[in-house]
């Protein structure tokens, strides 16, 4: 079990064994800061959502913990800690347990509204998508037009979207041939749903990707340079109309080409961006994911 899941269970235990999803999220958000320097402590990342910082990953893992008997999650709002979860909550490293204790002692008696207000005051970034009328929302950045690209390798779903929001991107152009992932959040259906929730358009361009078969050919005898050379030739000859459509999409609104690799030079999006740039008369900008606010 991940350390962040144990921390979640311990927070539930210290809250008396029950809490709303909203309250739990607002308590685990300050824990992210308190536990950030602890060795081996994984953390939940958050994005600006309807009522402040929200973690889609935490929601997913709450469902997993309920499935495995650590929690009961029958009520969509209220979560309850089961016996198995109470026992597992005590199997946590002392430094992380100390951080959980500090956060629950300091903020555990606060109401949901006061917790949200506290976050907005200290971290105004998370007010961007707030539905509370009384909140002064920070302006949403809007990028200049360019051929942006980004890779999601080794980052969380929330870190990726924080970077897109910071950069002012309003449209994801998924250029993976097969948009699946073993990691939560990067399967096409989930990515599309989260994009919609955060006000970012999503579209899939499988014809402009590289197939699993082609990528599997890269070895000592067949180098990536050869793969990308073949890729450029195929796209220019067989997908000219889709390239034109992609260029029009990029010109119409701030858009990003999305694929896996963190280093764009090891990804076909580097070459795709190079083809689209002269067609759109826009520069290429490769985005990298910075630490979340």
Q: What percent of residues are in strands? A: 5-15%
Task: Provide the number of structural domains.
Answer: 2
Strand arrangement across the biggest beta sheet: 8-7-9-6-10
The biggest sheet amounts to:
5 strands, parallel
Radius of gyration: 22 Å
Distance between the termini: 26 Å
Structural shape? elongated
Q: Please estimate the helix content.
A: 40-55%
Overall residue-averaged pLDDT value: 90
What order do the SSEs take from the amino end to the carboxyl end, as H and E? HEHEEHEEHHHEHEHEHHHEHE
CATH topology description of the largest domain = Cobalt-precorrin-4 Transmethylase, domain 1
Low-confidence blocks of residues:
none
CATH class of the largest domain: Alpha Beta
The CATH architecture category of the largest domain equals: 3-Layer(aba) Sandwich
The structure class reads: alpha/beta
């Amino acid at each position: 079990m991940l350390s962040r899941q144990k921390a979640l269970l311990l927070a539930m235990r210290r809250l008396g064994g029950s809490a709303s999803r909203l309250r739990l999220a607002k308590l685990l958000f300050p824990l992210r800061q308190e536990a950030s320097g602890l060795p081996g402590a994984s953390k939940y990342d958050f994005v600006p959502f309807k009522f402040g910082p929200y973690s889609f990953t935490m929601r997913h893992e709450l469902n997993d913990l309920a499935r495995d008997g650590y929690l009961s999650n029958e009520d969509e709002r209220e979560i309850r800690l089961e016996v198995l979860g109470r026992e597992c909550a005590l199997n946590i490293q002392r430094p992380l347990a100390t951080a959980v204790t500090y956060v629950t002692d300091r903020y555990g008696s606060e109401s949901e509204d006061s917790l949200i207000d506290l976050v907005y005051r200290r971290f105004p970034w998370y007010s961007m998508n707030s539905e509370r009328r009384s909140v002064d929302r920070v302006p949403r950045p809007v990028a200049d037009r360019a051929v942006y690209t980004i890779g999601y390798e080794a980052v969380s779903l929330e870190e990726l979207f924080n970077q897109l929001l910071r950069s002012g991107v309003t449209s994801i152009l998924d250029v993976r041939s097969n948009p699946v992932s073993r990691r939560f959040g990067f399967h096409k259906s989930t990515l599309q749903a989260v994009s919609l929730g955060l006000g970012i358009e999503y579209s899939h361009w499988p014809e402009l990707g590289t197939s699993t078969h082609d990528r599997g050919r890269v070895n000592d005898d067949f180098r990536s340079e050869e793969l990308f050379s073949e890729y450029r030739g195929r796209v220019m000859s067989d997908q000219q109309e889709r390239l034109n459509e992609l260029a029009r999409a990029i010109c119409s609104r701030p858009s990003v080409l999305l694929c896996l690799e963190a280093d764009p030079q090891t990804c076909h999006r580097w070459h795709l961006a190079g083809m689209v740039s002269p067609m759109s008369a826009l520069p290429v900008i490769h985005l990298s994911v910075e630490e979340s606010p």
